[in-house]
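Sample pair:
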Amino acid sequence: MRRSEVLAEESVVCLQKALIDLREIWEVIGIPEDQRLQRTEVVKKHIQDLLDRMIAEEESLKERLIKSISVCQKELNTLCSELHVEPFQEEGDVTILQLEKDLRTQVELMRKQKKDRKQELKLLQEQDQELCEILCMSPFDIDSTLVPSLEDLNQLRKHVATLRETKDARREEFVNIKRQIILCMEELEHTPDTSFERDVVCEEEDAFCLSLENIATLQKLLQQLEMRKSQNEALCEGLRAQIHELWDRLQIPEEERETVATLMTGSKAKVRKALQLEVDRLEELKMQNLKKVIEAIRAEVAQYWDQCFYSPEQRQAFAPYYADDFTENLLQQHDAEIVRLKTYYEAHKELFEGVHKWEESWRLFLEFERKASDPSRFTNRGGNLLKEEKQRAKLQKTLPKLEEELKAQIEAWEQAHSQSFVVNGKNFLAYVAEQWEAHQLEKERAKQERQLKNKKQTETEMLYGSAPRTPKRRGLTPNTPGKVRKLNTTTMSNATANSSLRPVFGGTMYRSPMSRLPPSGSKPVLSSTCSGKKTPRAGRRGANKENVELNGSFLSAGALKGLQI
């Protein structure tokens, strides 16, 4: 049994006990029956009224709970709709009181969510509005009167984060450009003269509108200032180059040059003015020293002629170069010519450098060719011969490759300019072919000279006999009279013309083919040494030049020395 039912039974028992006590009291007092009835009616009515009031109150509570449930359900449905969430569903059978409590709790939760979303929406919109004003952009399109969904809030958060990143990037770009603009203005000594320039330079950085249009205008302003700065720098560099050129032509001493050393850097207005004054001073000095200046220019012209491989005819074409009347007009002609030559050289610098490289390689190639035909190179020490051979082999590979590269470049240049590329007054390709042909002719001429020399030497040896070289022996001690074989000089003098003697130190004596007279009445007969036999080897021809003639024959110096001993 429930405690409420127990309490109800106890309440009934208490009421019965109270009525019994009242009757006993009435009995003792002696209250008549009719009065007892009245008094009992009063007690009943009092109890009835009390119970009726209590029941009414409970019924009122019930009604209030039912009404609250209805109100909460309606509000909850509305909140779910606004918050874009599923409607609340009570699980299982619950009492009115529990249902009302659950609905009221859920409503309070939904109200808090709605409030939080509205507050976050307001905060994000304020940030969005602030960033859009700085960036000059349109705010995020969202209805602030409605409760935003979670997706809407997420998109707005991303939008605000993107705007913040854009703001940071543009501010960094603005600060960098502003710093460069200030530096350029200081270099140019320029004062902001427009409202935009004053906003950029003079106002606070946070007050500047970071719109795309303003950033573009800012970049354009920086480009204009940098262009002016570049023009000033180019002007100053041109003035400095002109000053250096005039210094060299006028042969200005270093001490005087150092006085304007401070002008060699910077491009401010005062520097430009000072440079121009120096140029004007040097120009006036140039006019006072025309001969010296023109001669300096002529040296420079000759240098460019060499670099551009001008032929004598091309050099002769510039007649003022050879004039002796040093006037201002002559100076102007030389200035124009040097400008033309500089322009011509710079326009074809790559080709000229390639030709110069080929000429250096060709000169080295000819040097190696000359050394290759020199027998004395085999006596070099220290590995020079090996180094030369390696360089020669490398050059034989690189020279044709260089010629092919130059040929391709020159052909492309000739096709682009519709004219022939001339070196020393000749077409370069023809010039290269001519050099190779001259080299081959020189080699052929040298070969023919060697053959002719060998032929003459052979004829001489056939006519007078050869003089072989005495072999060189190492480690021999000086000769002593005891170690030298004595020869009978009488026997030697009486030896026949056909005999030959071998000297002590390896020398060989050959008879002369003309030493023996031919028989009388007969034709001259050549010696058997020359008929049908080999001549001495070319390596030994003329090796021993100390042979002396003895009794119609050649005797080596070693043999003669032995005879004298």
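DSSP finds 16 helices and four strands in the chain.
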